[in-house]
Amino acid sequence: MAKKFISFLLTFIIIFGAVFMGESVYAEDTNAIYVSPQGNDGANGSFENPLATIAAAKELAKEKSGEVTVYFRQGTYTVYDTVNFTRDDKDCVTYKAYGGEKVIFTAGVPYSGFESCTVNGVTAFKKDVGKNACFNILFSDTTTLRRTRYPESGYLYIKDVDEKYCINPDLEVDADFHKGYTALIADKNDIPPIKNVNDAVVRVLHFWKDEMLSIKSYDPSTGLLQFTKPSSMTFHKNERYFLENVFETLNEPGEWYLDKAQGILYCIPYEGESAADFTVWGGETESLISIDGVSGIRFENIIFRGNGFNVSEKRDFSQAAYDAPTCVSCRNSSGFGIRNCEFRDIAACAVFMGENVRDSAVDSCIFDNIGAQAVYIRGENLEETDPRVTKNIDVTNNLISGFGRVFYNAVGILIIHANSVNACFNEIHDGYYTAISVGWVWGYSHSITYGNKICNNLIYNIGQGWLSDMGGIYTLGNQKGTVLSGNVIHNVAADPGEGGYGGWGIYLDEGSSYILVENNLTYACGSDGYHLHYGSDNTVRNNIFALNGESQIRVVSNLGRVEGSKNTAAFENNILLSDGKALAFSRLDDKDAYSEKGNIMWDLTGGEDVYSSRNSSNKAMCFETAKRRGWLADSSAADPMFRDAAGFDFEIEDGSPAFENGFKKFDYSQAGTKAGTVIGISAQGGMTPYNAQSSAVEYTAAKEPFHFLLVLFYRIADFFTGLFKK
């Protein structure tokens, strides 16, 4: 009995000490390794004699058995060469900040020792960084500095396209999109004389892609602008473009220009900054961490900041910034994890999980000012039984803001050839393209992407008029068991210019099939709340699609493009709220290709004056016409009784007729990061209301030809029908 009591007492003391003494107990842990900026890689890695680099800690971990924790003391750790974890390295090692200390991993090369000068009539700092300097991104101690741009605001527009600069003029497949050109014709009055024109980079925005093209030559007499590689997509007249790294527009605080020919870096300081104390960092190393073949590698409470990217000279087809370089990558591994980390001022993709990655997670992290994707998952399209399938990955409770800042067509969370991925409880905003994209097979071919859960995400202010063909959530191909639920999406805006289209809330693209879309709130998107290109056997129920600019639900499909049960989608118990006569349902090309029941429609200003269309809004049908002709056989026009829809408050009052139709309330406030959690180092989760930063969009009003006469005819017909019934 005494032995049991003594054993209990010792256990209590150990637990009590661990709880109240915090991580200081790990100083005695033989499986703990310590690293400090003041350390020495020749030391033993103890608390008193820490190492200096993560590379040295990785090597020392090999000498230990069991799970190992590497603690980093406060400070900045510069990674000059990628730290590669391979099969020879130790499994099950956690790399984390010690206690509450601030730890930063960076690849930025510091530049100081500037001298003052005058550039374009303003004070500038300059430094000789050498002609071999090739960084394309520059950081201060707080943020990314702005690369110079011409024009300083707005865009230039392609004047013409010469077919002799097309590399494959006879291309038949996707000819409208992927011919590829090595030149464009500019208006010769648009581009003034530019110092070191070959240092400038041209950015062309078209459809769902942006180009990044180095200049080979420019002829100011003809406007011929030639590039060092072909474009990935076809150039068209009037497409927008602009130039970056232009000396002549260097004039605003926070801007920089690299004269590569002379090896001189110029920066415009903010008021109060002095050349003697001025330090900036040029990111050259693209990848900080690469994991391949070793499992159980985890990072916690680390700030990753300031890597680089190179302008590729190979022709690319990088839809969704498919091939952007990566800060932290993982392949052929399981148990990979990133928790409570922060990724700030990242030049391209922040976190990549590739082929044969399983049972891994990115949880409670902050991603801010990211050049491409925040989280990118890309496996291979293997058979279901293949053990190398990428699967069982959680991307949860993350705050993603300012993605696609360098590669404009990048996606916040991109999921390709992977199944059983949970992308849930994330807040994603302020990007130029799609927030969450799932799938990479066009049409009905085999796809290993299935069974994914895209739930309770708060998505807003994306697109911002830069590109086209995007959605808050985007899917592609067969995806049995994939669920989109509990998401709140608003203010998705596509390029409004010539040829621009597609700022959609939920976008099921080519072949999207067997997907459940349920309990989502999508509103104030420039185009449609829900858009289905074509697909089979989708279920869309108990959603609210409200105040979207063109229509609330659009179905671009017919029986000729539907497989399976010959039903492209079943629309059940949804609420559709328009305003200014924007369409409710649109593009109902084939009423045999979809089913609908229990849906409620209403116009905020027009009441029952609700419209649908078969092909275009110019041939719209009012609700009564659509009912009589069988296009909307089992839906009704009634006020859903939102508390204040005009103010973007979509709480439904008691007594709403939607409940009689079977609509069930869901809690919009659950979308976004989780309340009561810590995101990154210290941010609090659940702080953004579901309707924060909402703004109204322009509505495209629908018109029914001879509307007044049709309504009059219906009334007369109803009158006489009533008489005969009596």
Précis, in short:
The chain is mainly beta and 726 residues long. 8% of the residues lie in helices and 35% in strands. It has a 15-stranded parallel beta sheet that branches. Strands 3-6-24-28-31-34-37-40-43-46-49-52-55-58 form a 14-stranded parallel beta sheet, with no helix packed on it.
What does this structure look like?
- Among the domains are: 89 residues, 2-Layer Sandwich (so0334 like fold); 173 residues, no CATH class.
- Helices cover 8% and strands 35% of the residues.
- The chain has a 15-stranded parallel beta sheet that branches. Strands 3-6-24-28-31-34-37-40-43-46-49-52-55-58 form a 14-stranded parallel beta sheet, with no helix packed on it. Strands 4-22-25-29-32-35-38-41-44-47-50-53 form a twelve-stranded parallel beta sheet, with helices on one face.
- The protein starts with a helix and ends with a helix.
